[in-house]
Specification:
- The protein has about 450 residues and is mainly beta.
- The protein folds into four domains: about 110 residues, Immunoglobulin-like, CATH 2.60.40; about 110 residues, Sandwich (Immunoglobulin-like); about 90 residues, Sandwich (Immunoglobulin-like); about 100 residues, Immunoglobulin-like.
- It contains one helix and 34 strands.
- The strands form eight sheets. The chain has a five-stranded mixed sheet. Strands 10, 11, 13, 14 and 15 form a five-stranded antiparallel sheet that branches. A four-stranded mixed sheet has the order 4-1-7-8, with helices on one face.
- About 35% of the residues are buried.
- The N terminus is likely disordered.
Amino acid sequence: MQRLLTAALLTSMSLMLAGCGNESRTDPPNVGLLALHADPTLETVFFRRVQANRTPLEYSETEVFDFDVDTYTFNFDVSAPDGTVAETISSVETLVEGSDYILVLRSAAGSPTVQLIELPRPDTLLATQAQLLHTADVVDTVDVYLEPAGFDVLAATRWGTIGNGDVLPPTGFDAGSYELAVTQPNDPMSVLFRSSSFSISSGETLFMFIADTNGGSLGDISLVRVTGSNEELVDVNVGSGIRVINAVQDRTAIDAGIDMQLAPPLIENIPFGTVSDLALITDGSHSITITPAGQPGVLEVDSDFDATLGAVGTFLVSGSPGALDAIFFDDDFRVIANEAKFRAFNASPLNTSVDVFVLPAGTAPASNNVTATVDEGEASNNQRIAPGDYNLTIRAAGSSTVLAGPTPITIDAQGYYAILLADPLSGSGVDVIFLYDFI
C-alpha cells in the first residue's frame, strides 16, 4: 500500500520511534492502524474505538488511524437499511510499540469477524514487497502464484499455500507488472482464479486479499489490492454478462443480438414484461441489436456499448416499434446478509416521472419517505430494504396522485427485487410488472 502504508503508517511510525530516546516524553508511543472493511456480505459499516472515531466504510474501503500503545476495544457497527445499527462486531486488541497493523472485518464461515494483522516492522522492510490475506469462504486451502504478467502457471513457483484467514508473510518482489493466480492445492492445472496484470512499484509495500465476489461480479473470487484506490481485480476468464428487459409499447416479443449476429440472436423471443436470462459475452466494445422476435431483417436498435470484465448489466428496451431505445444500466447483484435490494425501471411515457414508495402497512406515502423517484426511460439505484411485508405505491412525482397501489409485497433477506412500470392497456395510471425475486 504505497500511499496508505508506506507514507501514512510506516513513515509516521518511524518518526515516532525516532523520538523514543527523548527522556522527557510522557505520552506513550503511537502506532498506525489501517481499518479495512473486507466482508462482501455487509454494506456500510462504521469503525470506532469504544465510542470514538465513528468512521463509515464501504466494502473494500480503508481508513488510517494513529493510536497510543495500549489495549483497545475496537467495534464495527453494521448499518441497517434505515440507518440504525443492526449489530456490532467487537474485538479487543493490544497494540505494541514498534508495529503497525491492519484491522480487518471479514467473513468467516458466513459470519463477520475481526482479524488483526501485524505489518512488517520498519527495520525489517524489504525494498519492494507484497503480503496476502485469504478471506474467501467459497474456497478452502489454495495455492497462490504471483509472477510477472503472462506467466505459465505450470512452469511457475508458487508463492505459498494459504487457508481461509491465513496470511502469506511479506515477500520481496522486483518492481514490475504482475498477475496473481489461485489454484487447487498441488494442482496447478486447476486454476480457480487469474487476475489481470497490475503493477508493483519500486519501494511499495502492497497488501492484498482474496475475497468472495458474493454475486457482485462474475466468477467466484476476486483479488482486492488495498491501495489508495482499493482496486478489485476479477478473473480474466469470466467475460461479461447482459440481460434484456422487454418494455416495448406494443407488448410483442423481441430478439437481442450482439455485433449484428442476428440469426440466431444471442437472446431470442423475450416476452413483454420479462427480463431475459443472463447471456455471457466477451468484455470490450460491442453493439446490441434489437429486432422483433423471429424477424432478423427488421432492425429496431443498433447501439454501441462497452462491456466491463466481470460486470453484469441490463438493457431496458422501450418505446414504440420503429423508435425503440435500448438503455444500458450497470447491475449490482452482490448478496447482502439480512437485507435485500430493490430497483424500479420506468418505461411509461405517460408517466414521465414517478415516486415509488415501499412502506410498512399503515404508513402513508409522503414527501419524506419516497423510496425512489424514477424518470421515464431510467432506473433507480438499488435501494436497501429490510426483510418484511410492505405496501407498494406509485404516485406521480411530487404529487399526491396515485398511479398504482397500494399493493402488498413481501421482501425476503438476500433477495434482488425489481419492478417495471409500463403504460396501461387502457385507462389511466401505470401498470406495475414484477421482476426477479418477486416472481
